[in-house]
Structure formats: structure tokens, C-alpha cells
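C-alpha cells incoming
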């Protein structure tokens, strides 16, 4: 079969070539989207990362396509309805190390509430060892509100207990065993917003979770709480987030993900592609305001990015491809 991989690193290319020796493989060092299509169009399988945007236009441009393999857990960068209408299957990497994202979540959290990023900048930029403005707060004894207790959220609960935090959680499908084992209650979404000192988001992005935190409910958040988002930018309405930060509802935010983050990463490309109205320009502007705020830490969708996790992601993706070729695909996403 003809397989196209987008944005693989060189060490990954080598492993993929060895693993899929009998197949016709092509590598493209860019993300796939309607403006970045390969010259050849007759691929049976494409493998992409979250920086690709596989919409109906991309599917139309690749008429032989039968299978999309995303090297990620999230699949909101793929138009599943369009795939279903063309009988194209989609697979993801359901789990590659829940610890990887959970550990990063605590990295962001501690960096934010102990102002490590400000201290680091100050020493690097002006060589000052002053403690002025660098006082933080403890994790121990604080209430952590975990929104979404799936694979990553449940690992976050376990780590939080190690820090002696109180945990409360919301999930439409509560995990009774987890709550008994780690002794925490499930509450309503509103109650978690009202009671948590630190909120952390671990839900998938879809129509139901779009702007889960928005201008109508953000003021429910306990005054002075912190928000950590390592799930997807679109879970939080950016304008509401800025308002909450400005008004002191939130003391700070640690964000590994932003709404319209693809545009922020490639603004030049966005501008010159000539159809900026398709994206929410207001959100792009709002992201710049967030970037400039000194109670906000932004990282470039980096929570997954450890050597161990990448190895596991690649192994599962290659297995997804092999099992598809053998006629018994695994890790299929419901389209
Ligand atoms: P999962 O599918 O194991 O768990 C998601 C949980 O969210 C489930 O328990 C589900 O019931 C719950 N949920 C669904 N709707 C909800 C709602 N409205 N409110 C509260 N809970 C809700 O997913 P997993 O593996 O824990 O990953 C979560 C998300 O993290 C992924 O969908 C992905 O978007 C993001 N992620 C981000 C990464 C990064 O590098 N920043 C890396 C990997 C995942």
C-alpha cells in the first residue's frame, strides 16, 4: 500500500521504514492541510500529528485514502463525519503514557503557583536575585478540581494525593473504583468550579466540550483559583479566560494548549494564505494578550513530548498501520 507520513523526525523515519519494509512509503516534512498537499495524491494511508488539519477538502484531494493514522490521543484535527461519509477509517493512540501528560500538568502547575518562570526570566534577563513578587503558595492542603478523570485525569488524581492535596472531580462517567481508592468525591461541574483552588482540564475536545468553560460560567470559579489546561484550547473560551484573569477571578493560568494554536504557530502562513476570515481573528489577537500576561504560562502543546512517549506513540501507530493492512485494524476511532 502507499503510505504517507507527515512530520516524522529522522529517527522515526528509520523505524517506520524498517517496520513497513514491504510497503511504498513517502515522508513529508510538513503538516498536512488543504494548503499543504503532497504532489502525489494516490495514498491509501496517511499518518499525521495534531498539527495537521484533515478536513473534507483534504479528503477530496486524496481520492484513494482508506485509513488515517493520527500519532496522538486527540483526534479533533480530523473531520470524522467527512471520513465516515467516505468510508475512511481513523485510528489514534489511545494511551501512550498517561503519566507523560499528568507529570507535565504538575510541572506547569508548580511553575505557575511558585512563579518559577518569573524567577528564571528575572535572573536570565537582568541578573537579579531579588525575591520581590515571587512569593507563591503550597500545593499541600489545596483543593484540586479535576475535570475529566479518564486516563490522564486519573493519573493526575494519583499524583495529587502524593502532594497531599484534596481532590474533587467532575466527569459525566464517574470512576467509582478510582474515587474509593483515592478517597475523593465526584461533584457537579459547577460545584467543582466553585470549590477548587486549582482546576485542571483533562477532557476530549468535541461539540459537547467546546467552550466548556465560558463567559457564562467562568465567574463561578473560586476567586483567586488557578487554571491548568493540557487538554485542548477550545475547551476554554479565550475571551472569558482573559476577562477572568484581568478581574482576579483567576490568579493565573498554565496553558499547554490554545484556541487556534495552529495559527499562532504559523501566523505568517496564515496571513499569506489569504483567507483569514475562516479563523477566529479575535481569538488569535486574544492569544497575544494571554502571551503578554505575567500570570500566564504558555507552552507549545508540549505535554506529550518525552522520548519514552514518542517511542510508544510511534510503535502503536505502526501497529495500527500493520493491523489495518492485515485486515484487522485496531485502535479505531468511532466515526
Ligand atoms: P480519556 O478519554 O481517557 O478521558 C477523558 C475523560 O473525560 C473521560 O473520563 C470522559 O468521561 C471525560 N469527559 C468527557 N466529557 C466531559 C465533560 N464534559 N466534563 C468532564 N469530563 C468529561 O482521555 P485522556 O487520555 O485522559 O486524554 C484527555 C485529553 O487530553 C485528550 O482528549 C487530548 O485532547 C488531551 N491530550 C493532550 C496532550 C498534550 O500534549 N497536551 C497529550 C495527550 C492528550
Amino acid at each position: 500500500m502507499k503510505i504517507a507520513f507527515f512530520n516524522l523526525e529522522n529517527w522515526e523515519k528509520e523505524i517506520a521504514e524498517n517496520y513497513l519494509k514491504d510497503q511504498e512509503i513517502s515522508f513529508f516534512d510538513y503538516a498536512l492541510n488543504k494548503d499543504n498537499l503532497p504532489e502525489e495524491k494516490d495514498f491509501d494511508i496517511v499518518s499525521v500529528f495534531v498539527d495537521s488539519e484533515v478536513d473534507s477538502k483534504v479528503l477530496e484531494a486524496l481520492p484513494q485514502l482508506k485509513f488515517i493514522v493520527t500519532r496522538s490521543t486527540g483526534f479533533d484535527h480530523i473531520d470524522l463525519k467527512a471520513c465516515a461519509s467516505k468510508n475512511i477509517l481513523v485510528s489514534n493512540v489511545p494511551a501512550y503514557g498517561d503519566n507523560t501528560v499528568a507529570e507535565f500538568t504538575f510541572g506547569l502547575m508548580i511553575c505557575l503557583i511558585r512563579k518559577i518562570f518569573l524567577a528564571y526570566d528575572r535572573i536570565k534577563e537582568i541578573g537579579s536575585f531579588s525575591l520581590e513578587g515571587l512569593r507563591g503558595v503550597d500545593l499541600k492542603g489545596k483543593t484540586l478540581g479535576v475535570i475529566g478523570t479518564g486516563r490522564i485525569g486519573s493519573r493526575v488524581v494519583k499524583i495529587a494525593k502524593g502532594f497531599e492535596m484534596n481532590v474533587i472531580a467532575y466527569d459525566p462517567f464517574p470512576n467509582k473504583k478510582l474515587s474509593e481508592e483515592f478517597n475523593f468525591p465526584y461533584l457537579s461541574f459547577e460545584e467543582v468550579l466553585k470549590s477548587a483552588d486549582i482546576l485542571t482540564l483533562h477532557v476530549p475536545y468535541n461539540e459537547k466540550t467546546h467552550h466548556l468553560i465560558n463567559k457564562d460560567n467562568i465567574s463561578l470559579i473560586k476567586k483567586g483559583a488557578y487554571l491548568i489546561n493540557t487538554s485542548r484550547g477550545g475547551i476554554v473560551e479565550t475571551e472569558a479566560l482573559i476577562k477572568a484573569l484581568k478581574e482576579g477571578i483567576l490568579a493565573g493560568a498554565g496553558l499547554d494548549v490554545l484556541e487556534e494554536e495552529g495559527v499562532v504557530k504559523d501566523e505568517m502562513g496564515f496571513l499569506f494564505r489569504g483567507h483569514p476570515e475562516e479563523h477566529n481573528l479575535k481569538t488569535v489577537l486574544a492569544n497575544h494578550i494571554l502571551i503578554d500576561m505575567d500570570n500566564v504560562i504558555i507552552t507549545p502543546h508540549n505535554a506529550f513530548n518525552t522520548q519514552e512517549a514518542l517511542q510508544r506513540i510511534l510503535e502503536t501507530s505502526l501497529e495500527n498501520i500493520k493491523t489495518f493492512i492485515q485486515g484487522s485494524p485496531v485502535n479505531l476511532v468511532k466515526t
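note: The mean pLDDT is 95.
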